[in-house]
Amino acid sequence: MLLPSTRREFLRHSTRGIGLLAFSRFAPRFLVQSTLAAPAPEKDRRILVLVQLAGGNDGLNTVVPFADPAYHSLRPTLALKQSAVLPVSDHLGLHPACAPLHALLQEGRLGIVQNVGYPNPNRSHFRSTEIWETASAADESLSSGWIGRYLDNACAGAPGATDPDAIHISAEVPQSFGGTQPHHTFSLAPGAGRANRTETPLLESLASSDHPGAEGNHSFLRATLMDALVAEKKILRILDTAKPATPYPQSNFAQSLRNVSALIAAGLPTRVYFVSLGGFDTHANQANAHANLLRQLSEGLAAFQADLSARHLDDQVLTMTFSEFGRRPIENESRGTDHGTAAPLFVMGRGIKGPLHGTPPDLRVEKNADIRFGTDFRSVYATVLDRWLDTPADTILGARHERLGFLG
Amino acid sequence: MNAPLTPAQAWQPLPASAWDSAAARHLLRRAGWAARPEDVARAVAEGLPATLDRLFPATPPAFPRPVFMIKAEERLALLRPKKRAATTPEERRIVDRDERELERLASIEFSLKWLQAAADPDRSAYEKWVLFLADVYVVAFEKVRRADYHYLHRDLLRTLGAGPAPALTKAISRSPAMIDYLDLSRSSKRAPNENFARELFELFVLGEGHYTETDIKQAARAFAGYRYYKNGFRLEVRASDTGPKTVFGQSGAWTGDEVIDLAYAQTAATTFLPREMARFYLTETPPPPEFFAPLGAKWRASNLELRSLCHAFFGSTLFYHPDYRANYIKSPVHYLLGLIQDLRLDLTPLPRATLQPLRQMGQNLLEPPNVRGWVGGRLWINSSTLAARRQLARTLCNPLEEETLNADERLELTAARDAGRSRFTVDDDRIRDLASLGPRGVADRLCDFFLPVAVTPAYRATVVDSIEAAPRAEHEERVRRATIAVLQSPEYQLC
What we know:
The structure holds 2 protein chains of 2 kinds. By secondary structure, chain A is α/β, with parallel strands linked by helices. Chain A has 2 domains: 1-36, no CATH class; 46-192 and 244-397, Alkaline Phosphatase, subunit A. Helices cover 36% and strands 13% of the residues of chain A. In chain A, strands 1, 5, 6, 7, 8, 9, 10, 11 and 12 form a 9-stranded mixed beta sheet that branches. In chain A, strands 2-4-3 form a 3-stranded antiparallel beta sheet, with no helix packed on it. In chain A, a hairpin with a 5-residue loop joins strand 3 and strand 4 (93-94). The relative contact order of chain A is 0.20. Chain B is mostly helical. Among the domains of chain B are: 13-55 and 267-324, no CATH class; 332-493, no CATH class. Chain B contains 24 helices and 4 strands. In chain B, the strands form 2 sheets. A two-stranded antiparallel ribbon of chain B has the order 1-2. A two-stranded antiparallel ribbon of chain B has the order 3-4. The two termini of chain B are 19 Å apart. The mean pLDDT of chain B is 94. Classes of the chains: A alpha/beta, B mainly alpha. At the A-B interface, helix 6, strand 7, helix 8 and helix 9 of A face helix 11, helix 19, helix 23 and helix 24 of B.
């Protein structure tokens, strides 16, 4: 039996006399769920794009406090001079590799939230990434991610769930996506191609046949495979034919954003996209590596925003960066920086208020000590959940966090 | 539900009466990659202790440096004077490019040769153990772009991986790949770099929560001045810090080796690695560290010998408990090498047939995602990695498309064939042999030999129908499709 691959096809099948419930044994579970649920409101669908700067971005050399003498004495070789940076205010400037972001800033499409972190910071990559992705406090451990809990809240049984609730372009599934209920997430990698797949019908039958006692990883594998079979067909079809409205750089990061834009433009009801850019763990010889990363980031984000505006989708999309921690204010003897604490992050979209939110870090620290955060990262999440995704932020985050002003 | 074991019961040796073919299949699939019927029969006949002696031998198998790596190193040695002699940035750029390319090719050769060794059923268990150790003592080519360093690092893990754990950790602190990867090469008395000291405690020996930030800062001083030069490891006296340090509350002029001994003297050290083994071999959610205390005590009594730990772990009652049967998700390396062994194939000696599929399935051999290595389990599985697994099964069950290969690749294939390795994919003859069993026989062979899960009669019937429904002339093609579908099935992803 050929399985329907979209909600529309499914409805067509079920109205052609094949009973919905009889059919449901063979169809992916989300198809059935979504068809049984009420239709989706097609308007006012807001999308969040998360950009992970993996490894710990050096905030002080991203948003540069050039007027602070402490910055220059902490960074004898890495400090950027006032003449080199792109001015944001009379004491702050962007790294020279961020020219495209600087332009967005002047157009009111980019905001900077300064000195974002959390109390009792952890300097382990994994633990701190986990804290950011689960939106937990440093001394608690949560098994679900903040996006997963948002999906629990917003997308359970939601129509249109034939398509993924969230899509990531990263080597691993982001911990942010883990919900208390399973959600349909899709992973996109460069080079996903087509092939002659004559064994697919038999595989579909095997994966959907009754298997009493299938539990844990076994049932997880069966469900994931069935979901993948359906989603795969549709998404590859979109990317095969997509044409961006404006050009993108050749970097993998920019090409990933190009794919995100194509999927948004195709009207996919996916609410969250997650794109990872790695390499920010700059313990040694940081200057060039960091400049290259910031250039890729800036050029990619600017191309994405330009494409979205040209397609009139920019009112629908908010993009936000994050990194597990910033880096130590004092540079090390290897012309690099070690794991630190707070750092600024970027928010990008149409009509971002700004440019600056929160307060800059105080660099009067003891030797080899870290800065203290000014804005809790959960305030950024609360603002996005509440003012952008319109969901009960305090429930999802488990506590009340102050809202910031970047969305007005 | 099965009765949960107490920690004391869990680490008792498996009673001889419980050693049967199902237990042997479980051991072979978890400690290695596949359970071929003849290997199962041999393990059952020999008994568990003798099987463990064979899987984890006192003398680890050798892995000589691949010939291409030696040639690449000779060519790299010729490039270095050229680099010194370069007078323009352009000349230097060209030498740099040639160096990078040689290192890249040598690293590919190293990975391929390792996969080939690991695919040998006689050494699968030990090579998987080396892979486990490499997932603890992580280094990545992305940062350490020297293939010879990766070879040396892996060689330390292999040759010392059966001996006492502290000796291995000390050797790793002198491994050139590790010295570069965790920035020891830049650590000096004036500016100790904390990266190695942190991971030593967090990821190698103790686990998070069993050390303080002060322990890390103090320990980092003991490793200042660790360098690796052309002639090997050297402690750079001018950069080292011989002053007193306080680590885990103990003060002394500790050396790096002494800091490692202090770490292993902590109780947490006896449960950390065993629990990492449970995470790698048994379950994504291992019991809490306390549960491993009896195993840790046994291990401590053996002077922390890793081979003893393997024998105790793989011979324990817990390892064979029903809770841990046929419910663990194979890693991409496991999936690839399991297919090679189950289908009785020779590994195709081409990156595009091995390393590329591994990368698409989420496991780039010399590039673990970060210092912690691969998390594994359900994180291996998503729609795109499943698509890559499906593609691999399809490729291995169809004739090699040699016309699409380039000249170098054809040479590689010829060389492999001359060396007696020629079964790269399931060819038409093999499919014809399988089809001769008849639809019912084909379904039984596929389900019973390949799947760790007992499937329902309806599942078997689905396979039978998929063959019988076609006209006779198409049966062989249907048998091929059925083989591919079973190897792509959720059930075959488990071990």
